[in-house]
Amino acid sequence: MKVHLFANLFVLIFACKNVESSKILGVFPMAAHSHYTLGFTLMKELAERGHEVTFITPYRHKEDIENLKLVSVEEVVEGVTEQKKQLYNMHEWSFYYQAKFILNIGIDFTRKIFNIKSVKDLLRSKEKFDVIIMENFINDAFIGLGNHFKAPVILIAPGPTTYLCNYFVSNPSPSSYVPNIASRFSSDMTLIERMKNLYYDILGEYLIHLYAIPKHNEIMQEYLPGTPNLREIMSNVSLILTSSHVSINTPAPTVPAVKEIGGYHVSKPEKLPNDLQEFLDNAKEGIVLFSLGSNLQSSDLPEHMKNAILKTLSKLKQKVLWKFEVDIPNKPKNVKIMNWLPQNSVLAHPNIKLFISHGGLLSVIESVHYGVPILGIPVFWDQEFNIRSAENNGFAINLPFKELNERTFSTAVNDLLNNPEYTKNVKSRQKILHDQPLTPMDTAVYWIEYVIRHNGAHHLKSPSLKLKWYQINMLDIAIILTLFTILLFVIFYFIIKHIISMFGDTTAVKAKKN
Ligand SMILES: *[C@@H]1O[C@H](CO)[C@@H](O)[C@H](O)[C@H]1NC(C)=O
């Protein structure tokens, strides 16, 4: 018994030692603050836990962190500022056009990253890594880094599993009850909506497999020559960690190589600047926080919307804190504007009563984490999807961008502030989010170290990775059964025909006799 215990202890120490200081490459080049947050919080945590982390990033953090080495790609930041101005127009585009726009951003962006000197230097270096952690955001060519550095690859999905990542691990996503991320459906779909959802899924699959993946393969072959075809190596991905959780997203199937870590990016609230802290503390009637995130600028809102919003806000007894990038003439007394604000730390303040948001997934998660109801003004991509889901869970009102006017805005704001149901519902969601055996961050670190301990943890892989799409959906069997059924009918038909003709003959003979 004792020996057993010792052996266990030894294995435990050895296992921990094994991963105590692994070499980790983090690939998070996307020039958007929300994407940066997803990478930075995780890389920082891994560095603090003693791993040696190399982090490809377009942004710089304030102070140096031990064990965290930057490979800066800040060159890419400038290029996207102009693209971001287009985002307000996106709600008018068709599904196909939106999807293609996003895919093209991803393709251009990936090529740009491979062309940056710091990245080229890293590729030429003799560096070795035990694991590569990369954000999965239409940058499939980066998968080749796994082959290049001979290391397992873990993907961080900036949302729930979607057709943008399902194929790596063959994760099922039935169109009958898993709404497409760019749709406006909840999981409760009518027959027509299910048909549309199937159409969106097929269109998405088509764009990914016949348009994006071949392009990414080209990029990969150009910058990482000698890599096998992308289609062959993509199933080598070890694990996908998703920013989702049942407290926030509608439940959907996940294979063992998918783990949910939604909420891991929410860090402890930081100390606020004195004037902001005072503003929050002194708002006895409560505060409405208003922010459209880092990609959309509130100051770019059309004039009539700005006026409608200001008119409503000025009539509230609550104070309003608005992330607004320029000065507002005749700003109402109860409104404070800041061109940048520490959203996470502000949301943590107990006086916050309502969050008016664009519905970015990280904002929705933070809202649930701190128990604040949401007025969602979704503009593009997954935002309406996130808000719909929050609305279904009873803690949000969905006010699509193009429907925003004084009447709709003021009705929604007042309903959310005066009806206690919304707060009650968000608090119960908050409880679900926090009721987990490990915190989302501990879960993330556990599975990352697990992949290192088990050399890529390929035993988690679903056997369906070996099957073709029509085999997984059993279309081959359906065709065989259909053909077989048709054959049976044909045989039956001829038998009947034969019998009838026999009868026909005998009656004919009888008729003759008479
Ligand atoms: C597959 O993953 C393993 C690690 O799990 C890695 O060593 C290998 O290089 C990868 N192969 C390819 C072709 O990417």
TrEMBL record:
Signal sequence annotation: 1-21
Keyword Transferase in record? yes
The main enzyme category here is transferase
- Give the keywords, sorted: Glycosyltransferase, Membrane, Signal, Transferase, Transmembrane, Transmembrane helix
**Record carries keyword Membrane:** yes
> GO CC: one term?
membrane
Organism domain of life: Eukaryota
Any one GO molecular-function label of the UniProt entry: glucuronosyltransferase activity
Q: Which Gene3D superfamilies match?
A: Glycogen Phosphorylase B
Q: Which residues cross the membrane?
A: 474-496
> Would you tell me the protein name for this molecule?
UDP-glucuronosyltransferase
Organism equals Brassicogethes aeneus (Rape pollen beetle)
